[in-house]
């Protein structure tokens, strides 16, 4: 009997004896608690950690977000004990899938950025790449989304951690102390002493990340607490959480995750969170490094600090501060260590998401750091002066300066302080160099790289799609879960009728399962024969859910006008949250829900058209939707979506992408073959031209009858219970501004949608395309991304 089997059986005996029950009498909740505790014990006792550093350094992955999702199923699978647990439960009349539903989803992230961090932890542990994930232990994760009576988004707190959550443990031994405010005394020359006004403690919670046949490594999350409160008024932002008092409890520091995706809110408390995260993490990294008898000079040889976006940028001046003030190194030595240790991943080009902090605020909150940043800025000034001639200098300095117009530009700080900078898909990385940082690219040759994002096949195929996994197991030699490129082996089967039937039957079964979820969640009975057309992601104008919305309205109007016309039935499924303060995104959600109510109750649409908005999009819901998708909507304006990762998950599970040439769609089309995706819309270059010629969305509105009728339906009360003004802001924005060129891409999107309907009618060709998407997209495994980081960035210096 395996040691896990013994642990399982003896622990079950004790668990039941303590409760005076037989195993058959345990509730689902008790089973969940029991299995979670036993698996945690198994992880801690027997799973190896501390993998050796061979050709790479240890990775310290600093991220304000880790959207880890449910862990139990994933851990059982990666421990290799999933089947044993399933068998034990079956003996007691239970189903493991139902038990796993008991777990709370820790929503410690907003969207793609946080989910990517979680996939990377999984891959690093699976590849035995030594790593620690450093994040924050928010007491409330991303808000829960409800849909109100009028179709509007409502937000509720998500106290994930108040529930039973056995996947973490408190590391009291790792406590840190973090200072804020106060003053700096200039001792002499380069010597300064910071006397902070407040100190807050950082407590560590570790969540072991279990790799697939690999090792376990910690995701270390910091939570704030203090024995005294601090006067928040000093930071000019007393309104946080509508606090009645301007003196707030320090434990509130890590109370909530800011709910913005690709948008900076600029609140002082967020900066405090960022610094707290970085200060605790840097201290922890140095503690471990020095404990192994290594010197500070050896830091870049053994450690890399990967900055996940600019959110942890303040780690750069923090490491400088510690090296200068605590260890009394010279500026030159400290900078040499620092600039060889950090690497920065850029995840966005959107100006509203590129963080800049008010310099006065930074100076009040972190007075020592601002002195360091000023020095970095001065040193940079010399470099730029040396590289650019007089005519070029003004522009180059405008682009590269870290301090400009009383702002601290965090992306610039990251580029200056890192030895490597990468974008997250080829087109994005090219734009980072050509549009965002051209002067830096000239100044720091060889610093810029691309690492295309990836997703973990363990969660997004093996766990989310067990039926497809079983089919792949049957036909693929070798462990595709660990080497996703092995899926190429099914390419020759794409035309095989028997394989096609099996693949198609699995899709149909997954669609039935999703149909049940939809009925449970929103009471809508859907047509399982329809095309399941899926758009799941954060709501943001640049992601253009409004384009999808307008096409559905146009389709609805067309069916109404031609009731006899044959229609390929379609179910449009949406899920996603909008930032609570993002009015237009919330209007789009409301319009979709109102449109859904009209369409779903119209007898003329029966068997032809349905719309479902599934509330509270989260990792566990994504796992149910993705395997059932026929069509994957990736319709952002070209140049705006850095990469996307939902596009990869959907395509690997056999959905056909309808998309623009944006982010990783470009590479998906290359790998899958252009005939196995449907591309539409303007390209980065043609968008540039469109704007150069003075883009006027109103012209499209006036010239295209189908488009105009669709937009007008938003102002005639059809989808708003007669209220003609509900969507005024949305409509005004589309017709008069349209910053994301929705109207310019409408006709081409509509044609692409018609192409999808046409292709779907030839099921043999459709399934062949779907199979080829699964077979050819192995490169989008996050294991490949991690290997790219290892060879391009994390290699030993
Ligand atoms: O918007 C990008 C998304 O395209 C990308 O897939 C993800 C992971 O790289 O990062 C998102 N960026 C942000 O959330 C903010 O920079």
UniProtKB/TrEMBL annotation:
Provide the GO MF annotations for this entry: glycogen phosphorylase activity; pyridoxal phosphate binding
Q: Name one GO cellular component term.
A: cytoplasm
The record's listing under InterPro entries reads: Glycg_phsphrylas (IPR011833), Glyco_trans_35 (IPR000811), Pyridoxal_P_attach_site (IPR035090)
Provide the top EC class.
Answer: transferase
**Highest taxon in the source lineage:** Bacteria
Entries under PROSITE patterns matching the protein: PHOSPHORYLASE
What's one GO BP annotation on this UniProt entry? glycogen catabolic process
EC code(s) of this entry: 2.4.1.1
Q: What is this protein called?
A: Alpha-1,4 glucan phosphorylase
Q: Which organism is it from?
A: Frederiksenia canicola
